[in-house]
Amino acid sequence: MEYTCVQLNDLPDEVLMIILKKLANMEVLYSLVGVHKRLNRIAQDSVFTNNLTLFISSSNGFVYSLPDPILDRFFSHILPKIHQKIKWLGLESLSIERILRATNYPNLYGISLYNIQAETAIGLFTGKICYFDSSNYRYIKTEPRKFMNKISFIR
Question: Which parts of the sequence belong to the F-box domain (predicted)?
């Protein structure tokens, strides 16, 4: 029997999508955006850009900031390319301000904030960092103790 070597680029888009859906959206974007034209197009599909969580969640429920090199790549290369496709952002307290200032998110439907005090979260959306029109939002949901304090804003 003869063995053949199949490379990632040899797989059809449908098979690549099935494989990549097993990864976190952040990992797909970080790993594939800018690699080459085909993988770039696949990584920027709405499957991977609609809901973006930009933190690390441990198995014991703690939430950690992404390492600076990963965040730097998101700010300089990834967010400017996908900002119009993002509908939901999951952020943690150490990188919230930097991510919100990185670009405009015109289609943002909701945001989840982790490891943040409610007062600080409300302060983020009073014009100091970005404009938050509360009249467009149905409710503000707070879940203390789930992921060390989670606040969700949903439009």
Answer: 5-52
Q: For residues 93 and 106, give the distance between their C-alpha atoms in angstroms, rounded to a whole number.
A: 22
The SS3 assignment for 152 reads strand
Long-range contacts of residues 34-43, Cβ cutoff 8 Å, at least 24 apart: 34/77, 36/9, 38/9, 38/13, 39/9, 42/13, 42/16, 42/17
Q: Are residues 54 and 34 in the same domain?
A: no
Tell me: do 105 and 90 sit in the same domain. Answer: yes
Extract the tokens encoding 67.
């390492």
Does one domain contain both 60 and 87?
yes
Predicted model pTM:
0.79
* Total count of domains within the chain: 2
CB 55 within 8 A of CB 92: yes
Average pLDDT for 130-148? 45
Task: Provide DSSP, 27-94.
Answer: HHHHHHTTT-HHHHHHHTSHHHHSEEE-SEE-TTS-EEPPPHHHHHHIIIIIHHHHTTT--EEEEETT
